[in-house]
Design brief:
- There is one protein chain.
- The chain is mainly α.
- The protein has a 3-stranded antiparallel sheet.
């Protein structure tokens, strides 16, 4: 998904983060970067299996966009049956490295959000169930 540049800077970007977000924006792009980092040189079907829940359409679209942005390399082999492999470019490797602190923050985040541990999760789920029951009761 390409976003429109914002006015205010010669290239339309206010800072480096908005430039990066144009490349990694969306639910799946960061996960595609991770999958290609952990499992280099993967075929389309292999990538799809590494990313449960992604549709073929979204994966194909994101791979095309990421290739156009220069973070994913697509190599098509002249074989029968045809074979195409995806891997990270040097820029893709650098981008993935830049996301490592964000990944570390995310791994630590659940602990910070629920200091009360399992009891807090159960309390949260009980409240969510009660709210869902209340909403369902009003719809009848």
């Amino acid at each position: 998904m390409t976003t429109l540049n914002r006015p205010g800077a010669p290239d339309g970007h206010a800072c480096g983060i908005d430039t990066a977000m144009e490349v990694i924006g969306g639910k799946w792009k960061v996960l595609i970067l991770w999958a290609l980092h952990e499992h280099p040189h993967r075929r389309f079907g292999e990538l799809r299996r590494l990313l449960p829940g992604i549709t073929e359409k979204v994966l194909a679209s994101h791979l095309r966009e990421m290739e156009a942005d220069g973070v994913v390399r697509r190599v098509s082999y002249d074989e029968v049956p045809p074979r195409v492999e995806y891997s990270l470019t040097e820029d893709g490797v650098r981008l993935n490295g830049a996301l490592q602190p964000l990944a570390a923050w995310g791994r630590e985040r659940p602990v910070a959000r629920r200091p009360e541990g399992e009891a807090g999760r159960q309390t949260y789920e009980a409240r969510a169930d009660a709210m869902a029951s209340d909403v369902a009761g009003r719809e009848l």
